[in-house]
Every structure is written in structure tokens, then in C-alpha cells.
Amino acid sequence: MPSRQKTKTRREKLENREEAIIESARAILNEKGFSKTTMAEIARAAGVADGTVYIYFKNKEDLARAVLAQFYDKLTETAQTGVDKRSGSIAKLKFLARHHMSRVMDNWRILEMLPLIDMKMDSYEGSDLYKLNRAYVAVFDRVAERAHEEGLIGSGTPLWVLRDMFFGSMDYGARTMLLIRQDDNINWFVDNLISTLFGRVEPSDKRRADVVDRLEAIADRLEDKL
Amino acid sequence: MPSRQKTKTRREKLENREEAIIESARAILNEKGFSKTTMAEIARAAGVADGTVYIYFKNKEDLARAVLAQFYDKLTETAQTGVDKRSGSIAKLKFLARHHMSRVMDNWRILEMLPLIDMKMDSYEGSDLYKLNRAYVAVFDRVAERAHEEGLIGSGTPLWVLRDMFFGSMDYGARTMLLIRQDDNINWFVDNLISTLFGRVEPSDKRRADVVDRLEAIADRLEDKL
DNA sequence: CCTGTAAATGAATATTCTTCAATTTTAGTG
DNA sequence: CACTAAAATTGAAGAATATTCATTTACAGG
Question: Disulfide-capable partner of A62 in A37, A57, B94, B131 (CB 3.0 to 4.6 Å)?
């Protein structure tokens, strides 16, 4: 049956076209921002007529949503892959932070569309974008839970607060770094962030912990003697 | 000389009109957001013709900038006043946090215009809005420096990182609270935020204290024996 | 009261999103 | 291969809205 073949080819062609439109939109939106980007320009870059874009996407917002969805999808994948490669909760968290910050800084014009587009307040939960966002932060949640089990995080602070602090600090930090302190490097920020949020695993602390271990051993021996 | 009188009256009238336009814009922008708000609607609400708005403001962005500027101006004043009323660095910081969060949550549609409008990358430093933003965060900086002098903050983390974490966590937290956990209260978030950022009593510290207790007890008994 | 300047107006213009009637392409069929 | 119905595409027209500007109105100073 060649019909299936042909159908598949056709579908593929459509998907390619959709891909091309999203890719053109992504590039232009990230360069100019939402309001300065015109549908005509996107259509031209994708090699289609103005009206064609509206066959694939309901309107400009919907297209921007698709761009954001693709962004989150890729972001989650590279984040998870990178986390899996590292060993040790702190190393995983630091990777996640560096990864997030560099992506935010490279794509801030894409990300700044989020509140603009998605803050509908009604339809947000249940939306594709919401689910993709959940999937992304879940990468953090798993690592943070693991770190908690290992005793690296004081149990006083709820996970969702830590999560908001983790991502909020970085989103804000990325913005000030872009605007003002362009030359400061990401690593410094990330190290400070992680050590503030998660039980300060600095060298000095490790040494202090060792000292405490030794003192406990001494206490044990002295108590035996007494 | 009645001329001065009359001139003053006229100038006052103009300033009142400018005020009226800003106030109408503020109300409508905070209700509908930037893109859904039309200049015609603002003009109507302010009781002027469409063209009149453009005598006072170059364009829609410029008007939105004026609204943001007024917002930051008021925000800084109420923040400083509130801080002055409290005593103790932690109380001041908690007030500042609660104050910030409630204002953000009440005015998020105004605030979400910030990246839209001001992320010019070139003209930002030196702009009015930048100066007002600096003035606002300076309120935090003064309190944090004081807290640092009092030993409430570990000196490891630079002030600018703490500042980004402070405001970033809240901006992000406010958004998730608006979108998802509407019923959770601000105080819980703020308490967790402050205790994570400032003067955290970690598990390791508790353990250290326990060991000291044991050793002191042992020392007492040894002294008795000798 | 008169006059020149500043302020205000709103109809006209310009830009850009979105729709849709007409056209082209494609898949399936005899 | 020719034909047909459905799907996809086109680009010009329509609609919404920001912005301009020629004209009118209000006012301060004489």
C-alpha cells in the first residue's frame, strides 16, 4: 500500500513546515522581543505567505506559546541529561544552576514572553506550558529531595520555597548580570547561591565537620575512661 | 502681580492633567496589562482627547514608563517609612519582604511591563527608571549592611548576590502564589526566605553545640576527679 | 478688548494582526 | 494517466489601534 507512504510523506512535509515556522519565530522573537516582531517577518523568514502561519497557529500569542513550549522541552532534556552525568547532589545542583543561568541569559527575550502570554490566571493550570514547566522543575525537585535525604538540606524549609528561591534568584540574577554586571561570571553567582540555599558545603565547613567528628571521638574515649 | 498667580494656576492645571492621565493609565494597565490596554481607553478615562495624551507622553511605552516610575517612587517611600518604624535588623528585613510581596502581588500587571519596556540594554543605566530602582533596592542594602555588621549574615556571600536572591525569590514566589498556591500566606514564605538567607541555624551547628555540651560536662567531671 | 502663544482636539494616516475568497497542490481512484 | 475532492496555500482586503497634524480653542499679557 503506497498510500501510507505518501500520507506519511505529506504529514512529514507539514511537520517540517510547522518546524520551520517555529524556528523562524524563535530566532526573530529572541532577537527583537514579542512586540517588535511582526508576523510578516516570521512568515517571510519561514518562506511562507502571511496567511499560512495562521493555518498552523491560531494567532501570534499561540505561536509564541509554541516557541516557549519547545524551549522548555529542550531545556528539560538537557537539564536531566546533565544531572544524570554528575554524581553527588551538590554537583548535580551546581550543574543545574549553571545550565539554567546560561540558558536564561541566552534566551531572555523568549522567557520574558512568559508572563506576557501565559498569566491568564484561569487556563494556566492544565495548559501545555504549565505541564512543561512542571516537568522542568521536577528535575530540580528530584535532586533536592535526594540532597535532603542525604542531610544536605535542613528540613526546616519546604521544598516549594527552596524551588522558588532557586529559580527566582537565578532569573533575577541573570537579568541584573545582563543589564549591569555583564563581566561577572556565572560560576561565582552559582556557588554563592548553592552554598546559601543548601547547607554551605564550603571547604571550611567540611573541616569544621571533621573537627566535630574528632571531638566526638575524644568524648567517647574520655567517657569510657571515667 | 496677578500674573504669577495665573501662571501658577495654569501650570497646576497641566500637572493635574498629567497626573490624571498617569492615574487612568495605571488603573487600566494594572487591570488589563500592556497589550490589551488601548490609548483611546486611557484618554477617555482621563477625560481628554486621544491626541492630548501624546502632548504629555511621547508614546504608549513612555506612558507606561511613567506609571512604573510613579510605582517605584511610592514603593520606596512606604518601604523606607516602614523600615524606620521597626527596630532590629531581622524585623526590618521581614517587614521589607512582606511589604514587597504584597505590593508585587497587587501590581503584577504593572511590574510585568518592566522587561517589556526597559530592557533596552543600552539606555537602561542612566534612565530614570534605573535610578528609581536603585533607590528602592538601596533600602534593602542599608538594612542588610547593618545586619551584616551585627553578625547576622555570614560574610561569605556578597551583598549583591543576597540582594538578587532576596528580590528574585520574592518576585518568583509571588508569581507562583498568584498562579497556583493562592491560599498559602505570604508570612510563611517570608519567614522561610529570611531564615534561609539570614542567620540560618544549621543541623551541623546544632551538632557542634551538642558536642560542646558533652565536652563541658566531661571537663566538669574531670575537674572533680583531679 | 485684542493678540499671539500654548494647549487641545479628533479626523486622517500608518502599522500590523487576522480573515477569507480564490487558487494551487495533493492523495486517492477509475 | 486523467480526474476529482479535499487539503493546503496564497495575498489582498478587513479590522484594530497607535500616532500624527491641520484646525480650533483657551489663556496670559498688554
Answer: A57
